[in-house]
Amino acid sequence: MADIETAKRNAAKKAVADHFDPSARYVGIGSGSTIVYVVEAIKALKDERVLRINYVPTGYQSRQVIYNAGLQDIKFDSLPPDAVIDIAFDGADE
């Protein structure tokens, strides 16, 4: 089981390293089992810009992960009409 979790953590780190832009305005956070590690990898960047990003969760669980990491969440239906989600992370282990 530890090998699976290690693989998920590594996949999340790779996804964030390859696709996350700290200057993004809106970042979608899905509800897959790897999302905890994606948020962990974003937080580990130690870039103060990640604190200004609005993270858009797909559900309650991902909202809690965002909140517990000290990041700013925004509900999808609260987005401004002209908002564009810059990148969305979901299923990073697939």
Overall radius of gyration: 13 Å
Low-confidence stretches: none
Side by side, the strands of the main sheet go 3-2-1-4
| Number of beta-strand segments | 4
Strand residue content: 5-15%
**What's the pLDDT, averaged over the residues?**
93
Helix coverage percent: 25-40%
What does the main sheet amount to?
A: 4 strands, parallel
N to C succession of SSEs: HEHEHEE
Shape estimate: globular
What is the overall number of helices? 3
Termini separation comes to: 17 Å
Structural class: alpha/beta
How would you explain this protein's 3D organization?
- The chain is an alpha/beta fold and 94 residues long.
- It is built from three helices and four strands, in the order αβαβαββ.
- It has a four-stranded parallel beta sheet with strand order 3-2-1-4.
- α3 links the parallel β2 and β3 (72-73).
- α1 (2-19) crosses α2 (35-43).
- The longest helix has 18 residues, at 2-19.
- It is globular, with a radius of gyration of 13 Å.
- The model has no long low-confidence stretch (mean pLDDT 93).
Keywords, please?
94 residues; alpha/beta; 4-stranded parallel beta sheet; 3 helices; 4 strands
Question: Which secondary structure elements does this structure contain, and how are they paired or packed?
Answer:
Layout: H1 2-19, E1 26-29, H2 35-43, E2 54-57, H3 60-68, E3 72-73, E4 87-89
Parallel strand pairs: 1-2, 1-4, 2-3
Helix pairs in contact: 1-2
